[in-house]
Amino acid sequence: MKKKVLSVLLASAMLSTVLAGCGSEPQGNSSASGDSQGSSSQQSSSSQSSSQSTTQSSSATQSSGSASGEGTVLKWAIWDQETTQYWKDIKEAYEASHEGVTVEMVDLGSTDYMTVLATELSGDGSDFDVVTIKDVPGYATLVQKNAIIPLDDYIKNDNVDLSQYAGATDQVLVDGKLYELPFRNDFWVLFYNKDLFDAKNVEYPTNDMTFEEYDALARKMTDTTFGSQVYGAHYHTWRSAVQLFGVLDGQHSILDGEYSFFKPYYEMILKQEADGVARKYTDLKTEGLHYSAAFSGGDVAMLNMGSWFIATMITNLQTGEYDSSLCGNWGIVKYPHAEGVEAGSTLGTITGLSVTKASDTPDAAWEFVKWVSGEEGAAVMASSGNFPAIMTDTVMNLITGLEGFPEDEASKEALNVSNLYLEVPYAPNVSEINSILDSYHGSIMEGTMSIDEGIEAMNTEISKVLAK
């Protein structure tokens, strides 16, 4: 791959602060699914602090804009400016490499960001040029409101290669048109505790495991002896951690309306719970045990989780928040897959950029979107320990070169994604679908419904939504 990385980008990277601002994790499911984390951002601030941040950001950037003379000013909607390193990194790198352009960031806060943004763009006085898209349901709202423009002509004229996004852009097409380009991508991998495997003299997980092999390995690692339990696997309470194993074949999605393809994975995981291979969903809900606490406790052999947890592991081991004797010797491999499915197929959530219909400078706004979502922007994202939407050789080397990243080759190879299937692909009614799937997932895992009953309820309720 090309390595078009401007010297100014890496000069500002400062790998000594590479993990600043990336200790919190973006969300496993999209925010529309009702999970506890914010999509592709750090945890939200209070409404008051968000408001103050917006005011401070506006006044500061307006001053810099006026000082820059008669150049182009791009107004950009973001969230959590003070706690998210890459916003500042992107702004400074872009301005340094594009003379006469000032990027004015406006912090709308992460709480209800997409709702606030939709309201802002509904007014006649909106002057945003570029907006950050936090989740797919919010993207759908902006498209329906005609607040953002299709990028297809720009993409064609500039020969942008959409294949570099591993299929993610195909899943957010609206009537064949693309209204955003992703610049951040968080995808799921399998974390594992090497010390636990070494203690049982069991070979580590590999980058090419079927679900049958994964289940057998989890069972091999399990010890149900009271006082010295080892759980072969762990599943967080998000439905992503169970249901979405079923979409890795590329033939299914949460929009199907018929969900029998979930059944084998519910059967596998509920059987693991019954046999002591994994903690019970009901116990996790009752205790409020976070997946990070479970894995860092040193009694979980394997954990399926998003790539954002890599930065958390590195940071918390360096600061001593995690006990290195319990979880310091860790690695990652690619997600397990069904028989016949390509290794490296995984789930993902993207964060994108769009050009607003209200922009007076759409061409300049597009140049910004293209740059941030391209190789130069990807290098900036990687320099702060975040995963960009495209993985060039330079990006890969930046991430795997971070102090604390596992040194084994399998962990480095795990970052190569062959197929990226969005947890939440585009649909006008995706919020309703998410809500229904969440509800019956809980019912199945709690045992108030059988697997068959829960799936039948999903089919019935979502069919009503799709028929509207």
Task: Detail the topology: elements first, then pairings.
Layout: H1 7-11, H2 47-67, E1 72-78, H3 85-97, E2 101-107, H4 113-122, E3 130-133, H5 136-144, H6 152-157, E4 181-193, H7 194-199, H8 211-221, H9 263-274, H10 281-287, H11 291-296, E5 302-306, H12 308-319, H13 324-327, E6 330-333, E7 345-355, H14 362-372, H15 375-383, H16 393-400, H17 409-413, E8 419-422, H18 430-446, H19 451-466
Parallel strand pairs: 1-2, 1-3, 7-8
Antiparallel strand pairs: 3-7, 4-5, 4-6, 4-7
Helix pairs in contact: 4-5, 15-16, 18-19
Could you characterize the architecture of this molecule?
The chain is α/β, with parallel strands linked by helices. Helix content is 40%, strand content 12%. The protein has 19 helices and eight strands. Strands 1, 2, 3, 4, 5, 6, 7 and 8 form an eight-stranded mixed sheet that branches. The termini are far apart.
What characteristics describe this protein?
disordered N terminus, 468 residues, eight-stranded mixed β-sheet, single chain
